[in-house]
Amino acid sequence: MTLRDERSEEARTRRSILAGATFPLAAGAVLAASATRAKAEESKESLLDKWIRTKKAVVGVDLTSPPMRFRDAKGKATGLGIELLDMLLADIGTEAEYVEMPFGQTFAALAAGRFDMIGTFVTQLPSRGLRGTFAGFPAHYQQNVAYLRPGLRVQSLSDLNVAGMKIACQQGTSEEGMLKVTFPKALVQAFPQMPDTFNALSTGRVDATVTDIQNVPGTLKTFPDVTVAPGTINVVPNTFFMQHDDFKLWAYITNWLRFRASERAIQGLEDKWYAGVIRETYKLSTVTIGAGGEALVVNPS
């Protein structure tokens, strides 16, 4: 072997040694990074554990939509949604601290960390799933119907899909997008709060308001000249909405809802707050949640 060959061989050997030494360093860096991520995930406390530890759950709510969520004559938060939330939190061993705001602002406020969870069940829009996580079981089926202004009569829901027809809904709700598809010829107008839509309806500023059937008793009592169009527009699932990446909280709420539906506790609350009187007095069918999460029609007796 010549001197040049010996030097070339020595250089190759050194490169091999250096390459061999680099591999453990790189592997070590990957393992260290993985360990850091795992430690960070372990140190992130689930809201479920936080609520148990602090005995307080900070929730964002809109308290302007009876009978779902509102303040009674004494100023106490109440309604079907509030009672269901209280049942959930009681089983966890905690209580709610409310951050009150218009419904349309609650999603941005949740993303900004102003509270732990939206305190009422919401429609499971796919677009909302980009900003948070829905529980894996429905808490309520929203049965949308059309309330008609005084003097307006229709034979079917298709009569609302005409040019010049003004249909109102609450701003930031699923109805705002749904109505534009279901009634493309009509003019859809969104109002900040649900009471605003019914005030506009009763004074003839809009022709119809579309929202949940649960508003029938209160609306027809307050505005006796308002009527309900025949038929159900659609039935859409609503459930609790929380921040991403908290599987422990998600799993607990999902299982809790499934159990409460199977024992018919959710149907019992619906009957208490609106469904019972709607079937008995107004002879309209209502929808509840089955043990498997399916929508069940309950007809008048």
CATH superfamily membership of the largest domain: Periplasmic binding protein-like II
Helix-strand sequence: HHEEEEHEHEEEEHEHEHEEHHEE
User: Helical amount among residues, as a percent range?
Assistant: 40-55%
CATH architect. name of the largest domain: 3-Layer(aba) Sandwich
Shape type: globular
Number of helices: 9
Quickly name the level 1 CATH class of the largest domain: Alpha Beta
What name does the CATH topology of the largest domain carry? D-Maltodextrin-Binding Protein, domain 2
SSE-based structural type: alpha/beta
Radius of gyration, Cα only, in angstroms? 28 Å
Number of strands: 15
Largest sheet: 10 strands, mixed
N- to C-terminal distance:
105 Å
Tally of structural domains: 2
Provide the low-confidence segments as ranges: 35-42
Q: Mean pLDDT score, rounded?
A: 88
**Beta-strand content estimate:** 15-25%
Can you summarize this structure?
This protein has nine helices and 15 strands.
Structure description:
- It is a single chain.
- This protein is of the alpha/beta class and 301 residues long.
- The protein has two domains: 128 residues, Periplasmic binding protein-like II (D-Maltodextrin-Binding Protein, domain 2, 3-Layer(aba) Sandwich); 93 residues, D-Maltodextrin-Binding Protein, domain 2.
- Helices cover 42% and strands 24% of the residues.
- The chain contains nine helices and 15 strands.
- Strands 1, 5, 6, 7, 8, 9, 10, 11, 12 and 13 form a ten-stranded mixed beta sheet that branches. Strands 2-3-4 form a three-stranded antiparallel beta sheet, covered by helices on one side. Strands 14-15 form a two-stranded antiparallel sheet.
- The protein starts with a helix and ends with a strand.
- About 3% of the residues have low confidence.
